[in-house]
Amino acid sequence: MKRASAGPTLRVSEIFHSLQGESTRVGLPTVFVRLAGCPLRCNWCDTSYAFSGGETLALEAILARVAAFDCKTVCVTGGEPLAQAGCLALLAALCDAGHSVSLETSGALDISAVDPRVSRIVDIKPPGSGEVEKNRWENLEHLRETDELKFVLASRTDYDWAKSALAGRHLAGKCTVLFSPVADALPAAQLAEWILADRLPVRFQLQLHKILWGQERGR
Predict the structure, then answer these.
(1) Do 100 and 94 meet the contact criterion of CB atoms below 8 Å apart?
(2) pLDDT in the model for residue 1
(3) How far apart are CA 192 and CA 211, in angstroms?
């Protein structure tokens, strides 16, 4: 007799409870599910430890660990979470369990199949990332008002490129657009001044978790 499938398994780098440091959910107590693996190698990546390794967990085990924190808000991140086939099932299951779910994704993979209850935080990679060619512009067609686009910028060149994309692709009319500086590369005040001078319809953001706890993992 054939055994019923126990559901997908996923390779998990870490699961932890902290404050959301980015997006319009900044400051909210959040459970983070960081999946392992990523096909990109951005120059300023701050989670390279998630490129490999991780613990293989069944979907039910992940849901149980999340539930133990007794927290409504959940963020699935990486690495690149959509690189794992089981990510879509995980996102849907978290929504089914009553969580308010966001997904942080590189923007290099197709987001169209993500459960519509999920808020998708989609990166747009500028030239300074070293991965500008990986941007999947087709994803823009699938954006909803509940989604967000994030530009992480390291220089004036990156900023001008992002400003051009913002106007040329009418991004501000699709969803919230976030601009943030690469730490130790672009001074935060400088980016803020450029945004104000150009009257850009974007939200400036810093990484709250790094302000509070630096590079400490699980924060």
Answers:
(1) no
(2) 36
(3) 17
pLDDT 10s digits, 142-178: 999 999 999 999 999 999 999 999 999 999 999 999 9
Measured in whole angstroms, the distance separating CA 130 from the mean position of its chain's CA atoms is 18
Residue labelled with tokens 């935060």: 188
Where do runs of H (alpha helix) occur along 110-169? 156-168
Domain ranges in the chain are 9-212
pLDDT tens-digit series, residues 49-63: 999 999 999 999 999
Q: In sequence order, what are the residues at sequence separation of 6 or more whose Cβ sits closer than 8 angstroms to the Cβ of residue 68?
A: none
Second CATH level (architecture) for the domain 9-212: Alpha-Beta Barrel (3.20)
- Sheet of 176-181, strands arranged across: 55-58, 9-19, 29-35, 73-77, 100-105, 119-124, 148-153, 176-181, 203-204
β-bridge partners, 176: 148
User: Does residue 197 register a pLDDT over 80?
Assistant: yes
Cis peptide before 130 (omega within 30 of 0): no
Indicate the length of the chain as a whole number.
Answer: 219
Reference 81, options 63, 102, 98, 66; nearest CA is 102
**What are the structure tokens assigned to 190, written together?**
């400088």
